[in-house]
Amino acid sequence: MAVELTIPLLHQFALLLLIAMPVACATWTVTHEEIFREPREFCTRMSKCCKSLPQRKFFYLFTCEYCFSHYVAALALLLFRYQLLYTGWRGYVVAWFAVVWIANVYISAFNLLRLDIKHENVTIAVEQCELPAETKK
């Protein structure tokens, strides 16, 4: 029988939100940022041209933010020994899926923010290009 954790639920939830932050950060950095571009491009190539299915899937998980977040979350749970709702392996399983889900919510929000900023920068650049043409009239 599973034993419930004695830590208050609000405290468990706060830890969930906090632990998901570095998971989202590490996941985003590896799967999107320039610093990991070359290894990511290599993994992308290998995920398409390896002959065996396990090899293709292994390399793919370094290019997919959702897939990679599962592994980063598992590492975070081991490091922080975080369990959610229950003690033992059940608490780790619940925590693992919850951390992955919250981390991916953070990643989606960050991606939307970056797209909005990029859109604003493009709009400003277009307006600056049009401005000199209007002042010549």
Describe this structure in a few short sentences.
The protein is mainly alpha-helical and 137 residues long. It has one domain.
- Helical region count? 5
Structural class: mainly alpha
**Could you name the ranges where pLDDT drops below 50 across 5 or more consecutive residues?**
none
Mean pLDDT: 90
- Euclidean distance between termini CA atoms: 81 Å
Percent helix: over 70%
β-strand number: 0
As a percent range, the share of strand residues is: under 5%
Number of domains: 1
Describe this structure in words.
This protein has 137 residues and is an all-alpha fold. It has one domain (9-104). It has 5 helices and no strands. It has helices spanning 9-32, 37-49, 53-60, 65-80, 89-135. Helix 1 (9-32) packs across helix 4 (65-80) and helix 2 runs antiparallel to helix 3 (53-60). The longest helix has 47 residues, at 89-135. The relative contact order is 0.14. The mean pLDDT is 90.
